[in-house]
Amino acid sequence: MKLQITTIFLGVSMLIAGGSCIKKDNYPGPNASLEGSFFLDGTSSKTTVQTCTGNFSVRLEQLNWSSTPTPQDIPAKYDGTYQNTELFSGHYRVSLKGGAFWPVAPTEIDINKGAKLDFQLTPYLLLSNFTATMVDSTTLSLQFNMEAPIDGGIPTIIEMQPYVNTTRIVGPGASIFDFSDANKKPINKEWADMTAGDKAPEIIVKNLIRGRTFYVRVGVRFNNDDKSSNLSEVIKIDVPK
Amino acid sequence: MRHMKKIFSIAIIGLVFLTSCQKLDIKPPNVLSDDQIFANSAGIDAYLAQVYRKLPIEDFTYRPAGRDGNGFNIHHEWEHFYHAGGACGEMVGPYGGMDIGGGFGYWPYADIRDVNYFMETLPKYARNFAGNTVNELIGEAHFLRAFYYFALAKRYGGIPIIRNVQNYPQLSIEELRVPRNKEEDVWNFIGDDLDSAYNGMPETSVSGRANKYVAAALKSRAMVYAGSIAKYGSVNFVDGDARAQGFVGIAADKAAGFYQKAVDAAKLLDGHYTLYRKNANKLTNYTDLFLDVTSPENILTRDFYAGEPERMHSWDATMSPNSGMNYMTGDGLSRCYPTLETVERFGVLDVTNPDGTPRRYNSLADLWQGQNLEPRMLATVYFPGESLRGKLFDIRRGIYPTFSGTAAAEVVKTTRTFLPSGDHTTTYPGDASLVIIGNAGMYPSSGSDDNTRTGFYVRKYINYKETDIKKIGLFSSTTHWIELRYAEVLLNRAEADIETNQLDDALLCLNDIRDRAGAPALTLADMTPDVVRNERCKELAFENHYWWDIKRWRIADALLNNARFKALMPYFIYDEKKYIFLKEPESFQRNYNFDKKFYYEPIPGGELSKNPNLYPNNPNY
């Protein structure tokens, strides 16, 4: 009996001794959030700067933690918004990484619960008047116009291509290769060298599958750092049976 | 009794005095000390052996995306089909796409420290070595250090140059956090180290170790890299802080200087090495060049051997078809196959009639037999219908009961009429002797990739002289890896020549290579960057050069623009009893897309957190 009490006492004191080494982590959890939208500059339209998931992202650098913080990126969603609800509160530098629009200067903000930050973006090119017409039972003709909101200094245009997918989420990285990348057209021109015809092109997509529904858009790709694209709106196409 | 006490006391005092002479600080008997290592050449050999073992040589076992954080000299690595060429279109392999773009965080400063320690310590023991030995060994150490820095510079651009052994706590943490050097300075440092190596080292060396010409050969490689980074990296680049501060990128006007250094270094090898020409049959000659350990073309090799300790690889067992039935190999499996694009660098294969219908062949071998194809091509790649170890590369994608129409119309059809098969036992209905896909043929797209996806298999480095299939297993190959060979030096020189308008010299080098290869001679008018690049891609195919070459030429983002690669698919037409070959996408139809940021790998995250002075990281990471 005496031995048991000693053992219990020893066990308890070991636990206390061990427990006293544990430091309480009193840092707050990731209780802040940041969200926002990407608007076409001067408007409240999100559709024209629309981009596919992963095409560009919002980069956060937590400056109150380190002067050389490890960046974390929030990808832009296909509907022109972004959101991260699991951030640590603090002072951040916010910048945009990638994307085919004129650069936006980084800003520094304090991020707490429910923080919002919208971006006004000016794309290199607006792909307007986009139409998609079935010219026969399985062939699609895509036409659009390229317009430059700002004329000089646009990166070299390398190619254009259609993006065809079976869902509304369609664009670079989310398309069917045989209808999309297989119809890529090289351009390799500066904007200043583009003729009126170059700026109003037609792209043909052949051998679509009868009886299916596709979502279609077009993109023009630039030779900038991440070779990103400006994209048109999305059109739904029902291929007749 | 009193007497006894006295003696006892004296004895005790004596003992105390005696033990006080024992030093407590004794050297551990299981660790070799500098006194022992630097005592004689055996100690030096042992020290350098471990440096050579860790050297970043991209041999058979190299794994470009790494395994468990390592890419070089990985213990028990057998999957040699994780080959860099298989991620960038030289071949198609098990990588799903651009999986190797970010590297594996190679950061060998511990190994560089070993070399620096050697350089600092050896002179203290100079009395132990006769003649010029110390200078020669210091020269060798410069070569080894340059080899490490070359592996770093081609990945990261500018990285910290550490010339001396760093010690803690003698140096403070802040002093140990060495910032990055500019990319240009790193390439110059590599050049200077190789000059010191050249000046110090002897003319010859034992197999697997460097001599002065090995240093010159590496210099020709490093300087042509630096030249192309300066020239083409100034046109095609990703902007960012690291570029603005010179940590990546070299000014374009420095290109000519680097290229000239490459030419000068390459010329130092004149008369000391020659291309392998032992066999009059050009095909056999080119095949044997990679198997003959006595080749006068070998500049630096890494040897593989059986015995104790053993170092063997699995190239033979993982590059030829096993077909799950020990077909050409006794173990292992293949997963990496040359693309049609690589094969057609040697010339377009004409498999179509003028009217667009596929040309009919009586046998698979008719594709290449008597076709006057370049011997080097046939020695680099196994075509359908060739043989290895008495077994046929019996490759079919399937059998058409009957076939009509053109090749172009056939390959775009959404439903095809050929019979595929997922195994090597299913025979054609009504013909029990005809296995549908053949013993080495391809599985359906939805099936396994353990047999060719392109119609081709790698031939380079395959040890055809071992005819016993049972002996071709994992860790059974002892073929040496040729890290530097004279043909590469000639190609480095020709490329630098062309970039600096020394066309006569370039022509000389390229025609030497082409003569050995069995290809027709070129003329001065052919001396363009594209021609020398194509020659390099052919000559050095599957030798772990292609990935770095398309990067330093800054063409990878255009070549691998969401690209898919092609195959040459053999089919049998049953009613005609003929073969046809169709050029169509490889059976897995994988996409390969190179992001421009991959021209440099990111500085490893763990190193950035240890040393904030390594910031800024490379652009777009």
Give a nutshell description of this structure.
The complex is a heterodimer of chains A (241) and B (621). By secondary structure, chain A is mostly beta strands.
Features:
A: 241 residues; mainly beta; Immunoglobulin-like; 2 domains; five-stranded antiparallel beta sheet; four-stranded mixed beta sheet; 1 helix; 16 strands; 7% helix; elongated; B: 621 residues; three-stranded mixed beta sheet; two-stranded antiparallel ribbon; 21 helices; 8% strand
Structural class of chain B: mainly alpha
Summarize the biggest pleated sheet of chain B: 3 strands, mixed
User: The CATH topology of the largest domain in chain A is what?
Assistant: Immunoglobulin-like
CATH architectural label of the largest domain in chain A: Sandwich
Number-wise, the strands of chain A total: 16
Greatest contact between two chains:
A-B, 15 and 21 residues
* Helix share bin of chain A: under 10%
The largest sheet of chain B has its strands arranged as 7-12-13
How would you characterize this protein structure?
The complex is a heterodimer of chains A (241) and B (621). By secondary structure, chain A is mostly beta strands. Chain A has 2 domains: 32-121, Immunoglobulin-like, CATH 2.60.40.1120; 126-238, Immunoglobulin-like. Chain A contains 1 helix and 16 strands. In chain A, the strands form 4 sheets. In chain A, strands 11, 12, 14, 15 and 16 form a 5-stranded antiparallel sheet that branches. In chain A, strands 1, 4, 7 and 8 form a 4-stranded mixed sheet that branches. A 4-stranded antiparallel sheet of chain A has the order 3-2-5-6, with no helix packed on it. Chain A is elongated. The mean pLDDT of chain A is 90. In chain B, strands 7-12-13 form a 3-stranded mixed sheet, with no helix packed on it. In chain B, strands 1-3 form a two-stranded antiparallel ribbon. In chain B, strand 12 and strand 13 (578-585) form a beta hairpin. Chain B is globular and about 120 Å long. Chain B is mainly alpha-helical and 621 residues long.
